[in-house]
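Hello, quick one for you while I still have it in my head. Could you read through the record and tell me how the C-alpha cells relate to the sequence? No rush at all, and the record is pasted right below.
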Amino acid sequence: MSKLTLYSSRACPYAHRTRLVLAEKRLRFDTVELDLRNKPAWFQSVSGYGKVPALDHDGQCIWESAVINEYLDEVFQEPRLLPEEPYQRARARIWVDYANTRFVPAFTALLRAPNESASHKAAAELSSVLGYLESEGFAKAEQPGPFFFGEELSLVDFTFFPWFERWEALQHYRGLSIPSELRRLHAFHGAVRSLDTVKEQASPSSFYIERYAQYVVHRAPAQAEALAERASSLP
C-alpha cells in the first residue's frame, strides 16, 4: 500500500488545494504541519523550494501544488479530476495557470495594499479578474452544472476554491464582496463549499481573519473602527 505524507500549513491556500484533492480521492495520508515562519532546516531536503505543499509518496518527494495535484490524478485515477479529452485537459491547465498568474496575485495585492490608493487600484484589478473568470471561464462550460466543467468536478475547481473560502477575510479587511451579478462564481462557490470532502478540510472565517491580520498594513481610520467592532463579535 502506498504511503503518502503531506507537508502542509493549515493557513496556506496552496496546501489547501492538495488537501482537497487527497480528500476527494479518499486517499489516506499523514500530515506534517509546519510553521511557515519557523520552518525546520530539514524541510529543504523535502521541498526543493522550501515551500508547502510538498508530498512524499513512498520516499519520493515532489512539490508545487499544481504539480502535486496532477501527479495525484495520474497515479490515483478515481475519481478523475482532469478531463480525458486533450483540448479540455489543456483548457484546464490554462485556467490553473490563470489562477496562479492572475487571480492569486490580484487577491494578494488587495490584501497587502499599503495605502488607500493602492487598495482602490488592487480592488479594481481583482474585480476585473473575477469578471473574466466568470465570462470566459465558468460561464463557458459546455455542460450545465455549477463546476468549471459543468457537472464534472475538476482540478480547476480545487485550484480556485481555497481563495474563495478565504474571501470573508478579504471582505473583512478590504470590504470587497463578490458581485452578485457573477452568478456562475456564486454557484461554483456554493457547490464546492457544500461537498463533504471540502467540509472535512474547511476552516472558519475567523481562522483566516486572525491569520491575515499580519498582512494588513493599511487601514483607513473608519475601517479600523469597523474592524474592531466586527472582530469583537467573532466566535
Q: What stands out?
A: Confidence is low (pLDDT under 50) at residues 221-235. The longest strand covers residues 4-8.
